[in-house]
Design brief:
mainly alpha
């Protein structure tokens, strides 16, 4: 524990009013957004557990697309934006990213139409309109989330917080209109979410474009050589995240499909409500801390010839881990005493059947995100592939565990799996990081 005083001195030496101002906007904005998210959950829970379960399964598809494509692309953009900004190439790099986003959106739309055609032949119970709005929701939601990361990157946190709040406020207003006219169903809900997400994606993109610096455009010959360089560097960096994303999705979202298979769609809805609280108590604070800390840590590892910078960066990672694990312990105790009341408050009694699982879900998810906080070391070193083995093995183990435990213990099996996997993951990542640090300081 002798490194704790060093962390204290480090914080004092680095703190400034600009950072405090930025962080305050992030905190206020995210707290406000969490409150609005709970209001959205409260409204959507009026659909009933089964309909909410259908909605939750569509969300898992959107999360999958985000984890295997938009998330890795966002990681690459965050990693290399300032690198190309220093070379006066931020505009060219940004345009490349935006072209990739457009191509991805068109591809997803084509896939959606293929699914609709297949659905016509196999005679699925859901109407064709449901598949169309689901596809539109997947595309639009990932775009708006991508530009959330972009605005945080360029330190437009105030604007980002306001825009996210406005997006959710408009969504709530439109949902209330649906509720008034008794049209609250998954297809109408997804249509509204698609509309608001796409509208605010355009606004966020406009804000970002205005913030790009005025740079001298290179001639066509130089540009032709630059773009392949950028593309290859980006692809090399993000390729491990593609496998990482699939494994993470299997771990954090695959269980909903297993619950749907072994139990019922209503159980999926009940579980999804509990996970919305886990999201607010564990995942959102983790993302806030990560968004704020990652650029600082990356900066420390920009010059690998300085051993002091390497040690300083590692001190920041330790601080990150301490804060996140403290939040995990608080959330676990908090939900142990008030979990049932929280679920009823944000939804209804119908969703509080399994409230006793909430503290276990918080603790298990918290262990996983404590492990995630440690992976910033490999990311900062341009070496995220170091975590491929733990990521893939944990993803596979999660699916096997969920199949086994849910089959024999019902929905209680999800809690068993999430704690089991959380323990293994945090230990595995700690072991990998010890090896990385030993090489760094040797």
């Amino acid at each position: 524990m002798n490194w704790l005083p060093n962390i204290y001195l480090l914080i004092r030496s680095k703190i400034n009013f600009g950072s405090i101002y930025e962080l305050s906007w992030v905190l206020v904005g995210q707290v406000f957004n969490v409150i609005l998210s709970f209001i959205i959950v409260k409204i959507l829970s009026r659909m009933g557990a089964k309909e909410y379960g259908i909605y939750a399964l569509v969300i898992t598809i959107a999360v999958f697309v985000g984890m295997v494509f938009h998330g890795p692309l966002s990681q690459g953009f965050v990693r290399f934006y300032y690198h190309y900004l220093e070379r006066s190439l931020a505009n060219i790099f940004s345009n490349l990213i935006h072209k990739v986003l457009v191509i991805a959106s068109i591809t997803l739309l084509i896939v959606t139409f293929f699914i609709i055609i297949i659905a016509l032949f196999i005679n699925l119970s859901m109407p064709m309109a449901f598949f169309l709005v689901s596809g539109l929701y997947v595309i639009a939601s990932k775009l708006t989330e991508f530009f959330n990361s972009v605005l945080n990157l360029i330190r437009k946190r105030k604007e980002n917080s306001l825009l996210q709040g406005a997006e959710k406020a408009l969504t709530i207003l439109l949902f209330l209109i649906l509720l008034y006219y008794k049209k609250l169903s998954p297809d109408y809900v997804l249509l509204i979410l698609s509309f608001t997400a796409f509208s605010f994606s355009v606004i966020k993109y406009s804000v970002f474009k205005k913030c790009l610096p005025n740079e001298t455009k290179p001639n066509d010959d130089i540009k032709k050589s630059l773009i392949p360089e950028m593309r290859s560097k980006l692809l090399l960096y993000i390729s491990p995240f593609l496998f990482w994303g699939i494994s993470t999705w299997l771990q954090l979202n695959g269980e909903k499909w297993i619950i749907n298979g072994y139990l019922s769609t209503a159980d999926v809805g009940i579980y999804a409500i509990m996970m919305s609280l886990v999201n607010a108590l564990i995942i959102v604070p983790n993302l806030i801390i990560s968004d704020f800390a990652s650029p600082i840590i990356f900066q420390q590892y920009a010059n690998m010839s300085k051993k002091d910078n390497i040690e300083t960066g590692y001190q920041y990672i330790k601080l990150n881990i301490i804060i996140i694990f403290s939040l995990v312990l608080f959330s676990t105790v908090f939900t142990y005493f008030l979990g049932k009341e929280l679920i009823i408050f944000i939804s209804g009694k119908e969703f509080a059947v399994y409230w006793y699982l909430l503290p276990f879900l918080c603790f298990g998810a918290g262990l996983f995100y404590t492990g995630e906080a440690q992976t910033v070391l490999g990311k900062a070193l341009n070496n995220p592939k170091k975590y491929l083995a733990p990521k893939v093995s944990i993803g596979i183990l999660s699916v096997i565990s969920n199949f086994f435990f849910i089959k024999y213990f019902g929905i209680n099996g999800v809690a068993i799996t999430i704690i089991f996997i959380g323990v293994i993951y945090v230990v595995y990542i700690s072991y990998v990081n010890r090896g990385i640090k030993r090489i760094l300081l040797s």
